[in-house]
Amino acid sequence: MRLLKTGAFVRAAQSARIAVSRAPVRAALAQSRWSSSQTAAAAAAETQHPFPDQSVEISREVDPTKTAPESKDQQEQERFEKKSKELNHGKRLVHENLSGVNILGKPYTFDNTTNVSDSILRLVGRNLYSTPDHPIAITRALVESCFPKPTYNHFTVADPVVTTHENFDVLGFPKDHPGRSRTDTYYINSTHLLRTHTSAHQHAAFQSLVNDEATGFTICADVYRRDSIDKSHFPVFHQMEGARVWDLPVSADSRYEAQLRRKEIIAKDVDEVPQTRIVVEDQATKFLKGSNPTQLEHDAEEVRLVVAHLKRSLEYLVDGVFEASRQMIPASQKEKMGPLQARWIEAYFPFTSPSFELEVLWNGEWLELLGCGVVQQPILNNAGLRNSIGWAWGIGIERIAMLLFGIPDIRLLWSEDKRFLQQFKQGTVTRFEPFSKYPPCYKDIAFWINSSPAAASPIGAESSSGVAAAAGGDATKASPTETQPAAFHENDIMEVVRDVAGSLVEDVQLVDEFVHPRTGRKSLCYRINYRSLERTLTNEEVNDLHNQVAAKMKSLFDIELR
Ligand code: PHE
Q: What are the Aminoacyl-transfer RNA synthetases class-II family profile domain coordinates in residue numbering (predicted)?
C-alpha cells in the first residue's frame, strides 16, 4: 500500500493498495450529509499547531476561484465559469486569457501549478466502487461488512476534487511534506487537486458524527497519485478510510469520573470485537516519546484501550477478507497452510499518533496492508468532537481485490471487456480466469537530460530499489512549492506514456542510466512494454504510439533524444 507517510518510518512500500463491503451504500444520503455537516461545524474552528484553523475553506461550496478581488478579473472569471459549465466533463476551455476544465459539472481554472492530464480526467467518474458485480465494489462490501451499522455509517464521495486544505493542511501535513509535490500529486490549480487519499474526507466525516447515532464511519473513494507504470500501479486506485470515536459520557459528575467510565466502555467494546484465529506478532506495543508517542493530552491507559480496539477491529477485517479468499482453496490444502500470520509494526502519519501498519504473510511475502493510529486530537477538536478520542485507518482496495480474485494486472480492473466484467458477481469471491494473453512489444527510448544534470536523477538514485516510493511522495523528488518542473522526473515520462498510450502499456522501466564522463550530462534509457489486455497490437500501431511518446517527450521536457 502506498502510504502517505514520511520521515524515519518511510519503508519499502511499493505495490499494494488494499480494500472492501456488504451493506449497500447510500451514496446520495452520504453526499447530503457531507455538505450539510461541512458547513455547520465550520464555525467551531480551533487553532492548534500544527493543525491550521479549520474555518478556512472546508466546503466545496466556497470556491477560491470566486474570491478574485479585481472586478474585471472576476467578471472574466464568471464568464469563464458560465461557459465551462456548459461543457461536458473533462472538456477543456480556453476563454479570453483563462484556460481550464469542467470536472463533473464544475468549472476549474488552470494556473502555473496545473499538471492534471486528459487521460487522468477521463478516468474520473467511473465509480468502480459502486458498479455492481465489479471486484472493487465486492471488496468494498466485504470490508464494510466488518464495520457494521448502526455503529458505522458507510460513505462514498464521488467528486475527487478537493482543496489542498482538505487533502493536507487540515490533517497537519507539514508544508514541505513530499506528498504535496507536483511530481506526485495531480494539481488542477494551486488550490484544488485530485485527492491523494480518502483521509481528505476525514474532517467532514468526523463532523457528520456530531449528534449522530453512529460513532464511526467508513469512506470509500477513488484516489489519484502520479506514479510509475507496472502491473500493480495505476494512477487511480481506491481506498477506504475507517474511524471510530468515543465521547465522554455526559451523566458523570466530573470529567475525571467521565473518563473512568469511558475507559470501562472502551474496554467492553474491545471484548465485543470477535477474536480471530490469526497468529499476530505485535512489534508495536510501546508508545515511546520520539518514535511513536501517545499525544500529550491523552491518558496512557485510555490510549492502550483505543489501540487494542483498533488492532482487534483490523485483525477481524483481515481475517474476514483473507478467509474469503481461502474459501476457494481445498480444505486439505488449507490445513497444510495453517492459520494466517500477521504483524503490527510502528509507523508515522501526520494525522495519527501513535501510528501502526499491519502486514500479512501471503505466499511467503510480508504484504503491507494498511496504516492506522490514534487520531490527532486537534483533528477531532476541529471537527466538533472535542470530548472524543478515537482511531482511524486507511487501506487500498486494489491489493486486496487482486489477491482475492487472483487478478494479475491492475489495468484489468479498468477493463470494459465483457470477458472480464462478466466473471464476477456481487457478494461472491471467485477466481479470475485469464481469457487470453496477447504478445508484448518492447520499445526503448533514450535521451540526454540537458539542464542541471546533477538535479535530474529521475528516481532519486536510492529509490531505484523501490524504497521510499511511498504514496505520500518521495523526498528525492521536486519540491512541492516549485511551479517550474525540475529538468526531468521519472513520473514525467510515465505521464507522457499514459497520455499517449493509456492502458496499452504494461510497464515502463529504466534500463540504462549513465553520466557522460566529460560533459557531465546524464543519459537515460526507458523500456516501454506495449501490450493490450484485450487484443494483439499491430507493429504499425506500436510504432505510431512510440513515435508520439518520443515527440511529446521532446516537446515537453528539456531533453535530447538519442
Ligand atoms: N491516508 C493514509 C494513506 O494514504 C492512510 C491512513 C489513514 C493512515 C488513516 C492512518 C489513518 O496512506
A: 221-434
Please report the atom of ligand 1 found closest to the CA of residue 1: 12
Q: What residue's CA is closest to ligand 1, atom 6?
A: 394
Ligand 1 centroid to residue 18 C-alpha, Å:
12
Confirm whether 435 is domain-assigned: no
Instruction: Please state the atom number of ligand 1 nearest to the C-alpha of residue 395.
Output: 5
Indicate whether 15 belongs to any domain: no
From ligand 1's centre to the CA of 390, what distance in Å? 14
Euclidean distance between CA atoms 368 and 356, whole angstroms = 11
Percent of the chain with pLDDT over 70: 81
Average pLDDT over every residue of 488-514: 93
Q: Which residues line ligand 1 (CB under 6 A)?
A: 3-4, 197, 199, 241, 349, 352, 371-373, 392-394, 471
The x, y and z cell numbers of residue 254, run together, are 466530573
Is the separation of the CB atoms in 397 and 140 below 8 Å?
yes
Question: Do 32 and 92 have their domain in common?
Answer: no
Nearest protein Cα to ligand 1, atom 7? 394
Among residues 11, 276, 320, the alpha carbon closest in space to that of 138 is found at 320
Q: For residue 54, give the 3-state DSSP assignment.
A: coil
**Using a CB cutoff of 8 Å and minimum separation of 24, what contacts does 109-112 make?**
109/65, 109/77, 109/80, 109/189, 110/188, 110/189, 111/189, 111/190, 112/483
**Is 102 in the same domain as 239?**
no
**Alpha-carbon separation of residue 549 from 114, 186, 227, 508, 554 (angstroms):** 21, 20, 17, 12, 9
Query: Is 265 exposed, middle or buried, given 0-12, 13-18 or 19+ CB atoms closer than 10 A?
Result: middle
| CA 355 to ligand 1 centroid distance, Å | 10
Ligand 1 atom nearest 394 alpha carbon: 7
Residue 341 class from Cβ within 10 Å (0-12 exposed, 13-18 middle, 19+ buried)? Answer: middle
Q: Does residue 49 contact residue 176 with C-beta atoms inside 8 Å?
A: no
Q: Please choose from 197, 202, 358 the residue to mutate so as to test ligand 1's pocket, defined by most ligand atoms within 8 A of CB.
A: 197
**Local confidence band at 181 (pLDDT 50, 70, 90 cut-offs):** very high
* Nearest Cα residue to atom 12 of ligand 1: 3
Q: CA triplet 319, 322, 323: central angle to 5 degrees? A: 75
- Atom from ligand 1 closest to the CA of residue 202: 9
Structural domain count of the chain: 3
User: What is the position in ligand 1's atom list of the atom closest to the CA of 196?
Assistant: 4
Q: What is the pLDDT of residues 85-143, one digit of tens each?
A: 788 888 888 877 889 999 999 999 999 999 999 999 999 999 999 999 999 999 999 99
Task: Reduce the DSSP state of residue 317 to 3 states and report it.
Answer: helix
Q: Are residues 382 and 508 in the same domain?
A: no
Say what the pTM is. 0.82
> How far is Cα 405 from Cα 425, in angstroms, rounded to an integer?
11
Q: Whose CA is nearest to atom 10 of ligand 1?
A: 372
Task: Give the domain extent around 167.
Answer: 23-61+123-421
What is the rounded CA–CA span in Å between residue 269 and residue 64? 43
